[in-house]
């Protein structure tokens, strides 16, 4: 059970819900971080009185220092400031809800300090899964998934004493807002269309990833690392209702599933209270509102990002960092209205084919692969 929290990405979708849970559980919050949204960060700082707040954008950090001058709260800046927030003295748990690869270095720093990590930032494991999991083992840190599917799998595996008993993981996918669309229809969708997820309210990047099915590809790689499973033992199952958050099939044919309303407050809270369960403000599951549950296969021919992610999953090494970095950059261009939807997959594929591969990379080589992938996307847009 968490005693005190460091929260990275507090102004985002996960960050705001995490603060709701911290308040509900009466957990002290010792640090907060954001990129630029200092209006909300100031409000949060005044409400939760952390020892430290970090703002990764230097100019915004300067403004926040002035705004918080009367509070005695320390304001630190830049990527190094976010690392300081991750390692704030006294916090036993760090919830990493920064979006994108910017989450890697602070997460790694907290792992090395042996903290409990409640991990929402999936790009960390996609880009540097082997390195991060090795650091977790070396520091005897705990890594608790917040991503809804991975929290579900984690919960289904809790009574499993021998991983050899796992036949496969069934990773559920909503199919996103464009489920059933043809390539022709996809060529005309807008950012506003892509931001309309059928079941979840999330930040813009992950919402677009759900629309391209890249989110499921990222989650496939995240699951491989978190649960030490080869790609053959993970099956993606389209489940439009997002009620079953994922399942585990065992060698005797038994299947365990975790169900719940689509409400991230539940997996956030479980990562903070584990190994205990406490009452939660999350919406309860109303079975009468979901009379039928459907299942199907994902369409990786229409949604090419999924096929590219599976390719990167099998390739390993720096492929995950290239996939993730190129995708982040391409999604940003799409959201800015500078490229059409289907250009996202083309740019990711170009990066995967162009950036040199390293099979057992160091942190520096991973960071370099991410940099090169982003550069490749910007040059090819
Ligand atoms: N939202 C959800 O329901 C789920 C999210 N996740 C994962 O959790 C992570 C966060 O997602 P979500 O909350 O939706 O994202 P949001 O975009 O809503 O929030 C992102 C947070 O990260 C901060 N941030 C943005 N860029 C940087 C940067 N370069 N350096 C440091 N901080 C930065 C933002 O600050 P600012 O506000 O100032 O820009 C904000 O606090 C993602 O990895 C996502 O895939 C996983 C499962 C579900
Ligand atoms: C809430 C959460 O964990 C998201 O990752 C969500 O699962 C996205 O849904 P799909 O990618 O399945 O559309
Ligand atoms: Mn998810």
Automatic annotation (TrEMBL):
Catalyzes the NADPH-dependent rearrangement and reduction of 1-deoxy-D-xylulose-5-phosphate (DXP) to 2-C-methyl-D-erythritol 4-phosphate (MEP). Its cofactor is Mg(2+); Mn(2+). Residues 5-129 form the 1-deoxy-D-xylulose 5-phosphate reductoisomerase N-terminal domain. 1-deoxy-D-xylulose 5-phosphate binds at residues 122, 148-149, 174, 197, 210, 215-216, 219. InterPro entries: DXP_reductoisomerase (IPR003821), DXP_reductoisomerase_C (IPR013644), DXP_reductoisomerase_N (IPR013512), DXPR_C (IPR026877), DXPR_C_sf (IPR036169), NAD(P)-bd_dom_sf (IPR036291). Its EC number is 1.1.1.267. It comes from the Bacteria. Mn(2+) binds at residues 147, 149, 219. Residues 143-227 form the 1-deoxy-D-xylulose 5-phosphate reductoisomerase C-terminal domain. NADPH binds at residues 11-14, 36-37, 121, 123, 203. This is 1-deoxy-D-xylulose 5-phosphate reductoisomerase. Residues 259-374 form the DXP reductoisomerase C-terminal domain. The gene is dxr. It comes from Papillibacter cinnamivorans DSM 12816. Coiled coil: none annotated. It holds the Pfam family DXP_reductoisom. Pathway: Isoprenoid biosynthesis; isopentenyl diphosphate biosynthesis via DXP pathway; isopentenyl diphosphate from 1-deoxy-D-xylulose 5-phosphate: step 1/6. Keywords: Isomerase, Isoprene biosynthesis, Magnesium, Manganese, Metal-binding, NADP, Oxidoreductase. It catalyses: 2-C-methyl-D-erythritol 4-phosphate + NADP(+) = 1-deoxy-D-xylulose 5-phosphate + NADPH + H(+). NCBIfam families: Dxr, PRK12464.1. One of its GO terms (biological process) is isopentenyl diphosphate biosynthetic process, methylerythritol 4-phosphate pathway involved in terpenoid biosynthetic process. One of its GO terms (molecular function) is 1-deoxy-D-xylulose-5-phosphate reductoisomerase activity. Belongs to the DXR family.
């Amino acid at each position: 059970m968490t005693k005190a929290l460091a929260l990275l990405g507090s102004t985002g979708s996960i960050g705001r819900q995490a603060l709701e849970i911290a308040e509900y559980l009466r957990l002290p919050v010792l640090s907060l971080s954001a990129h630029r949204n200092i209006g909300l960060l100031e409000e949060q700082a005044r409400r939760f009185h952390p020892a430290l707040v970090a703002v990764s954008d230097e100019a915004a950090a300067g403004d926040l220092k002035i705004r918080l001058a009367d509070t005695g709260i320390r304001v630190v800046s830049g990527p190094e400031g976010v690392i300081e927030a991750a390692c704030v003295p006294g916090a036993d748990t760090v919830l990493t809800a920064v979006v994108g690869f910017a989450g890697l270095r602070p997460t790694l720093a907290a792992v090395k300090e042996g903290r409990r990590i409640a991990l929402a930032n999936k790009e960390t494991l996609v880009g540097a899964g082997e390195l991060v999991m090795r650091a977790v083992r070396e520091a005897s840190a705990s890594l608790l998934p917040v991503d809804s599917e991975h929290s579900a799998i984690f919960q289904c595996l809790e009574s499993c004493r021998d991983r050899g008993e796992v036949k496969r993981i069934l990773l559920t996918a909503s199919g996103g807002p464009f489920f059933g669309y043809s390539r022709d229809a996809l060529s005309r969708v807008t950012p506003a269309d892509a931001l309309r997820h059928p079941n979840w309210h999330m930040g813009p990047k992950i919402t677009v990833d759900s629309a391209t099915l890249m989110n499921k590809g990222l989650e496939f790689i995240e699951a491989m690392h978190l649960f030490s499973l080869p790609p053959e033992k993970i099956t993606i199952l389209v489940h439009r209702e997002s009620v079953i958050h994922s399942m585990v099939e065992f060698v005797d044919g038994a299947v365990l599933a975790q169900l719940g309303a689509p409400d991230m407050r539940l997996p956030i809270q479980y990562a903070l209270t584990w190994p205990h369960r406490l009452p939660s403000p999350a919406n309860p599951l109303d079975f009468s509102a979901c009379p039928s549950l459907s299942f199907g296969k994902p369409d990786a021919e229409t949604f090419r990002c999924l096929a590219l992610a599976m390719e990167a999953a099998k390739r390993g090494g720096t492929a995950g960092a290239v996939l993730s970095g190129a995708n982040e950059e391409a999604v940003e261009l799409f959201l800015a209205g500078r490229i059409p939807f289907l250009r996202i997959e083309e740019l990711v594929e170009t990066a995967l084919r162009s950036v040199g591969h390293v099979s057992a990379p160091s942190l520096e080589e991973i960071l370099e692969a991410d940099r090169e992938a982003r550069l490749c996307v910007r040059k090819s847009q």
